[in-house]
Amino acid sequence: MKITLDMSISKLLDAFDREFGVSLGIYKGAHKSDNIKLFEISDPRKNQKAFIVINKDTSVESAEAMFRNTFGIRVQVKDKNGNTVSQESTLGGIRKLDKGFVDNNENNINLIDNDSEEINETSEEENKKKKKSYFLKPKLVKHTVEDKIKEIDKYYLGFQRSERYKSMVNLLSCMEEAKLTYPESKELADHIEEIKSKSLNISNLSIKKRRFAILVLIIITSILSLIGIGTWGYNLYKNIKKDREADSIIQEIDNLRMRKGSLMESGNISEANAIDESINSKSARLNSIQNESTVSIANYFIIAALFFAVILAMFILRLNKYNVTSIRFGKNT
What we know:
This protein is mainly α and 333 residues long.
């Protein structure tokens, strides 16, 4: 039920009477006419376009607070006899539990001046205490045994299709809830045992599949690790070999320079020039070795192996969690 400030008091009271079977006391100003609009008695500081929505599940306390906080209008919900009701009661519960309620369309208008706004709080508290147990919301049964069996079958079909951990937990939760709700139902207990047996077969098959997937991941991770480590070792050997070759060339260049110096001192210019050519060729070879850089694929294999190792760890943890939970299917009801 939507209430706006454009509604007249008579329309509001009539709607409350028809919808919830209760009367509404409105405490605001000296207005006596039931044809005035709510905005005429609302707090002008409040938003004039504001509205509230009340239904049968709204408590009396919440309904009165909505009028007070949104419109600045003080109201009080009362039963058909004009008595105050428990703040914990719902508007729908009052109609259901009011044994003396007779459905009619009479407007319950109760406008009080500011001068009479003070209410006997002691009397109110006494009435609330007397009616507290009377206005408790009744507990409603939402399912029958047949409904629970259908709900269990629905979750079982979901688990059968997906074999996922979440579907398993939903199925187990539904069965345990059903056992607590209907502990004396032999039909439900037999059906639960049948579903447990079928689900146990599904979970065992799913565990085998997951173990096979883990085995495949272990093989892939091992292969990638071996290739990565082997490639890294081969590259390390090549780098050591290049460093040794570079050291050897540097040593040869130093020896040739020393020999060239001796030849220059003895006046053998032609032989010294020939040594320059040898030095230049060896220097070029040294530069090519030092500047040679290759991107090692070993790093890619090692990164891929680490990636699959993380996936493998997640699969193992989930398998353990799945396996531990599936054991509940083997337990007796």
